[in-house]
Specification:
Elements (H helix, E strand, L loop, with lengths): L6 H29 L3 H25 L5 H24 L3 E8 L3 H10 L4 E8 L2 E11 L3 H11 L4 E7 L16 H6 L2
Antiparallel strand pairs: 1-3, 1-4, 2-3
Helix pairs in contact: 1-2, 1-3, 4-5
């Protein structure tokens, strides 16, 4: 049994690899969307994912006896698709988080900076190991986490923080990074 590495086989293998990367990446994002309760997104991604999978698996099953190297392309595409899917999900950052920050010294200053940036912050006074602390409680979109952490570490580099996934959020205060201009500004006027 030879590997059969002619141009046609390599082209078919490359197409299988790319299709599997796309298919599995969509599957990863679909799974996360399903867990977060995003039905429309999960439905659409599931349809595209399974359609691609059917085309790829039928191609591989029909040709694997003649060209076993296609199995390697299939497996590499699957593995790479998982990594790409996780990277995509982190990049688009669907959902909401709860951020809890505990600051021994600059909690009030940190809360003020976050509020100035448009985030809703609730503060609590507490007692820590070495004395009084301020706990900040913030609910935000996951994609705003980096901005929040930059504000927090700028105010207090020694602050302790925890993030949690928020399953259901009725409303959040989110920052407006740029004021609308032109025709979009007309719709913002009250």
């Amino acid at each position: 049994m030879e590997l059969g590495l002619d141009f046609g086989t390599l082209l078919t293998g490359a197409l299988i690899f790319v299709a599997r990367v796309v298919d599995v990446s969509l599957g990863t994002v679909r799974t996360i969307s399903t867990v977060q309760g995003r039905m429309k997104t999960a439905f659409f991604l599931g349809f595209v994912e399974v359609s691609m999978w059917l085309v790829v698996i039928s191609t591989v099953v029909n040709l694997i006896a003649e060209k076993p190297i296609l199995g390697l392309f299939y497996a590499l595409g699957f593995s790479t698709g998982n990594v790409v899917g996780i990277m995509m999900e982190k990049r688009i950052a669907l959902g909401h988080i709860v951020l809890r920050i505990i600051s021994a010294q600059k909690g009030t200053e940190m809360a003020g900076k976050m509020r100035e940036s448009g985030f809703g912050v609730t503060t609590f006074q507490g007692e820590g190991l070495t004395g009084s602390v301020t706990e900040l409680f913030v609910v935000s979109r996951r994609r705003d986490l980096r901005n929040l952490m930059n504000l927090a570490t700028a105010a207090d580099p020694d602050a302790f923080y925890i993030t949690e996934q928020a399953c259901s959020v009725n409303r959040i205060y989110r920052p407006f990074l740029q004021q609308p201009t032109g025709w979009r500004a007309i719709f913002k006027k009250k």
